[in-house]
Amino acid sequence: MSDLPAPSAEALAHSERLAGLIRREIRDSGGVLPFSRYMELCLYSPGYGYYSAGAQKFGAAGDFVTAPGISPLFGRCLARTCSGVLEQLEYGDILEFGAGTGVLAATLLAELERLGRLPGRYLILERSGELRSRQQETLSRLASRLLERVDWLDELPEGGFRGVLLANEVLDAMPVERFRWDGNGVERFHVECRGDDFGWRPRETHDPALVTAVRRLAEGTGLLPGYVSEINLLLSPWLQGIAAMLSRGLLLLVDYGYPRHEYYHPQHREGTLMCHYRHRAHENPFLWPGLQDITAHVDFTAVAEAGAAAELDVLGYTTQAWFLLDCGLDSLLQAAGPTDSAAYLRQAREARTLILPGEMGERFKCIGLGRGLVDPVPGFRGQDFRYRL
Ligand SMILES: C[S@@+](CC[C@H](N)C(=O)[O-])C[C@H]1O[C@@H](n2cnc3c(N)ncnc32)[C@H](O)[C@@H]1O
Questions:
Q1: Whole-number Å distance between alpha carbons of 96 and 323
Q2: Which pLDDT does position 262 carry in this prediction?
């Protein structure tokens, strides 16, 4: 880890406070914590977690950049998806999960106004109080006729939701279980204290939810003994909750990940756990708790299966590149062309980052789940990769 820039003394003190809290919870739980709980505390512990406290996170001065921060073209394309669905439904709302800095919400509202297809309300459900404040600050710059449509929720609406639900890079930020398949049984990775540090402690588990899920995976993909990976057991209940409140509309999930046969491929036999600190990616989740992001890739087959189990239609699955192109990325780019060549060149550079295969274009996928939609959804009318799931 010697190539990582050292955090400030203040940041290290903050991390040490969170580490102390985790050490206490480990001690109170008999010496170990499941990795999912460790990840939950690192990311979301109130006042201390990476997302819940004041770390910069997004942008050049933070740890990573997401598509809405790379270019407004991303949000302008997604506006075409929202517009298509809202037109089909005649009216509806938008609900964004985990809205980060709020920049996607701002771009979407401005573009939907240009398209003459504003949602009734733009709702945001955000786990982090700190990010909610940042979103409020970003969106306070909107014209009041747009801002008055925006509202923050503490929980999912009761039911009868009609419209579009969006989650960009939210699934990868959900706490996952780490496991090892031994050819017959399952070990769950726990976290233990090693002096002032933390370390792995795999233990045989009989937890029915984890054992059943891993056994199914092992049978379906032919996992070899010793294979280590992650599984998101929170995904299914999360989608069940959404399905229960969705009367008609689309849930669009954008994230990095693979279909199951690629996710649990022998080449990924150490899993997909990844940490981000100051634009460097590494694999040590025990470094500086609370100061770095911890993520796992998304198993899109699991998303499709959990969606179908919740009685949602799988409306489309494709790469981010094909999705944005079907939404008209190239015409948006052309429109910047003749009059302003500096803007054109900047946007062309941003578009390349969003769609080139070696950048985000193929690593990021888009999946659409929904209910009560008959017409094709913009973004999914081009290349349909559902057969890969
Ligand atoms: C990697 S950030 C992505 C932020 C933003 N969507 C973007 O693209 O820049 C992950 C976000 O998801 C939020 N999050 C994680 N789990 C969530 C959940 N179950 N419900 C709502 N937000 C969640 C985090 O607080 C954070 O805002």
A1: 18
A2: 96
DSSP letters along 28-59, please? HTTS-EEHHHHHHHHHHSTTTSTTTS----BS
What is the pLDDT, as a whole number, of residue 338?
Answer: 64
The verdict on the CB of residue 66 being under 6 Å from ligand 1 is yes
Q: Can you spell out the DSSP letters for 141-188?
A: TS-HHHHTTEEEESS--SS-EEEEEEEES-GGGS--EEEEE-SSSEEE
**Is the pLDDT at 166 greater than 80, yes or no?**
yes
> Alpha helix (H) ranges present in the chain?
9-28, 35-44, 67-70, 72-89, 103-114, 129-139, 144-147, 208-221, 235-245, 260-263, 300-309, 320-326, 329-336, 341-355
- Residue range 81-93: average pLDDT? 97
DSSP state of 64: B
* Nearest residue (CA) to ligand 1, atom 1: 169
Q: What is the mean pLDDT of residues 229-255?
A: 98
> Residue 318 pLDDT more than 80?
yes
174 CB under 6 A from ligand 1? yes
Instruction: Kindly report the protein residue whose alpha carbon is nearest to atom 24 of ligand 1.
Output: 98
Cα(140)–Cα(157) distance, rounded to whole angstroms? 23
What is the distance in A from the centroid of ligand 1 to the CA of 27?
A: 30
Q: What is the DSSP letter of 284?
A: -
Whether 168 lines ligand 1, by a CB cut-off of 6 Å, is yes
Report the pLDDT value the prediction gives residue 342, as an integer from 0 to 100: 84
% residues pLDDT > 70 (the chain): 99
What is the distance in A from the centroid of ligand 1 to the CA of 93? 19
Residue type at position 323:
F
Distance 244 CA to ligand 1 centre (A): 21
Q: Beta strands 298-299 and 161-168: pairing type? A: unpaired
- pLDDT, residue 138, reads 97
- Residue 138 CA to ligand 1 center (angstroms) comes to 16
What residue spans of 222-293 are helical by DSSP H?
Answer: 235-245, 260-263
CB contact set of 53 (below 8 Å; sequence gap of 6+)? 14, 47, 130, 290
What is the mean predicted confidence (pLDDT) over 65-73?
Answer: 96
How confident is the prediction for the chain on average, in pLDDT?
96
51 touches ligand 1 (CB under 6 Å)? yes
Predicted local confidence at residue 2, as pLDDT: 60
